[in-house]
Amino acid sequence: MKILQCIPSTLKMDKDGRMIIYTLLLAAISGPVVAKEWTANVVNELEALVSSCVVIPCSFTHPGGHMSSSTLRGLWHVSRHLDQRIYYDDKSRVLENYRGRTKLLGHLGQGNCTLEITEIKDHDNGPFCFRIELAPTSSGTLDKFSFVQNCAKLIMQPDPPKPEMNHPKTAIQGHPFTVTCTVAHTCPTHAPKLTWSRGTEDGITEVHRKTHSGIWEVQSILTFIAEEKDDHSVITCTSTFNGGRSSSETLTLFVKRTENYNHIIIPTVVGLGTALIFAVFCLFMVKKYK
């Protein structure tokens, strides 16, 4: 009412003017409410190796701002079916096929709703959606929200990906030779293990890193001194995934011998020595018969 008293009389009598004022007032009132929306960031599509595991990155924000994990309850369900839960604190309310195979990573109070699924089955396609519930308020109402528009679908991979090997075309005898083996995966909590056929006596460095949202890679760097006996030898890198599945890649090593001139100097010296002996012999014979 006070706001309307401040409006000029000419504008009060103008129907269009009143509509503009009411629109502005409605925007001013509803603006803060709209700004405080539930939001979620979930990887929409991930590859998952059958019999291994997968981690679905997930984060969310809620209108209440920072809250303790004890006041929040998170659950994951299949598509829009809230009763088909694959993760929940009360395991008796989780689908039997997923009991013991799902775990929430991180803390809900920090907006982390990342989910881990182990022992992947070929029917674990999803899509899987996250739902957040806040503890009941003094009025008895329960604030809750399902992010059914941001769900994760899993693409089943029946065979493990093969590692990639990068290395120079040839090795030089007596010099360090470095070969890198890299494999991508979607389960950082149980990353694949890379091993080499040359054994552990050589220098090996391992690196783990995130490449994209939901995709990680493990890299093993092998360094050794190339010797002549290594020429045409085979080096194998094997990646063993969680669940026991493995794949490998090989390379045939070509060693370039160190440049030396022994093959030129020795025959030359022998040739000159032979020629000198022959010349002395000839000179001796000439003097003798002369």
UniProtKB/TrEMBL annotation:
It comes from the Eukaryota. This is Myelin-associated glycoprotein. InterPro entries: Ig-like_dom, Ig-like_dom_sf, Ig-like_fold. PANTHER family: MYELIN-ASSOCIATED GLYCOPROTEIN-LIKE-RELATED, SI:CH211-171H4.5-RELATED. Residues 160-252 form the Ig-like domain. The chain crosses the membrane at residues 264-286. Keywords: Membrane, Transmembrane, Transmembrane helix. The keyword Repressor does not apply. It comes from Xyrichtys novacula.
